[in-house]
Amino acid sequence: MAALYPNANSASDRKCAPSSLWELLRLKRALIMGILNVTPDSFSDGGRFIDPTSALAHARRMVSLGADILDIGAESTRPYGGAVAVPMEEEIRRLTPILPAAAELGVPVSIDTMKSEVAAWALASGATIVNDVWGLQRDRAMAHVAAEHGTPVIIMHNREHADPALDIMAEISAFFARSLEIAVAAGLPRHNIVLDPGIGFGKTPEQSLIAIARLAELKSFGLPLLVGASRKRFIDKISPAPPDQRLGGSVAAHVLAVTNGAVIVRTHDVAETVQALRVTAAIENVR
Ligand code: HH2
Questions:
Q1: Which pTM does this prediction carry?
Q2: I need a labelling partner for 2 at 20 to 30 A (CA). Which of 52, 168, 179, 266 fits?
């Protein structure tokens, strides 16, 4: 069966695991980004991994289960959950005992931050990808930091408030176009950009569904697409459940996202997502 899912993350593959996002993208299979939140207040796992020992154990577990990338964040982005803004110094303090060690685990580490200073610190400390949930549009120094380090950037769509009247796909495309202009002006090459429609950010639950259903439209940018639907609120609106009981909905959303063109999915539940995507790929391959 392994042949049906090329370069799957078995322990033996891991020995020669790709060390950069560019190498990973050449694997021709969907990639798994495992989430590590070193925060007290993240919406689904807040407080679980604030302690460095448990954070690193979780990072190691995700890699052994098949995570291709680790996404580490030290400030919750919770759009509607009243996340507390964290000063730059505190974000770096939380990351210091964790990020450099996680960067030794054999997979690329991305830094999930809205602050260019934190991104710069993380890139100097072992991270090799920047994940900006404001798509380079909030902290204008972010694009320059990524360009200076020559690292890939995940540009995520976001807005302060959801507007149910919006054509969400047109809004996301216009946002990406603005972000790409900022990137080009800062000298960030196009081949270093990944686009993410930002499931649950500045969108009604229905608009999050639309973004997954019509994801293929975003392929027109000619850039890799990432989707992060893990445990998000739109699942609860369809099938009520607390965040830690939204696995079924998360897996369904990620499978469809990949079917519709996502090449990276961002998840809290690595093992289940790896299995679902392997089975999806195997079925596609015998079609
Ligand atoms: N979602 C969250 C955080 N960062 N980054 C990208 N690129 N795409 C996403 O969909 C995305 C993201 C929110 O999820 P989580 O990290 O679990 O929660 P919190 O922000 O509360 O820590």
A1: 0.94
A2: 266
